[in-house]
């Protein structure tokens, strides 16, 4: 049970690629609203996502599946967060394409 901690990777619900939690944004749902959890401090079930993969995750209805919801969560808060975050993002490593 404890061995899994050694390789702490999470799967992005958008592109299904695995990354370290540092590279992904944790998302939780409270009262039907998807909320960004950048410090991964909130309890409960979370979904992990690249900032760039929000649109893909929405198209695939990945949140409902990942968070075991019967209906899609309200993504307005999360969308606004990702939009403002990627706008000021100073790509820390190699730029993608
Ligand atoms: Zn992704």
Short note summarizing the structure:
The protein is an alpha+beta fold.
Describe this structure in words.
It is a single chain. The protein is an alpha+beta fold and 97 residues long. It has one domain (7-87): YlxR-like (Hypothetical Cytosolic Protein, Chain: A). The chain is 24% helix and 19% strand. The protein is built from three helices and five strands. It has helices at 54-59, 62-66, 76-87, and strands at 10-11, 18-19, 25-30, 33-36, 46-49. It has a three-stranded antiparallel beta sheet with strand order 4-3-5. It has a two-stranded antiparallel ribbon with strand order 1-2. The longest helix has 12 residues, at 76-87. The termini are far apart. The model has no long low-confidence stretch (mean pLDDT 86). The structure holds zinc ion (ZN).
């Amino acid at each position: 049970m404890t061995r899994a901690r050694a390789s702490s990777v999470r799967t992005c619900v958008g592109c299904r690629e695995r990354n370290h939690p540092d590279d992904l944004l944790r998302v939780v749902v409270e009262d039907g609203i998807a909320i960004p959890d950048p410090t991964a401090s909130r309890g409960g079930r979370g979904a992990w996502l690249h900032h760039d993969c929000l649109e893909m995750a929405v198209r695939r209805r990945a949140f409902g599946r990942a968070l075991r919801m019967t209906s899609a969560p309200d993504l307005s808060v999360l969308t606004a967060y990702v939009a403002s975050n990627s706008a000021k993002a100073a790509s820390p490593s190699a730029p993608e394409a």
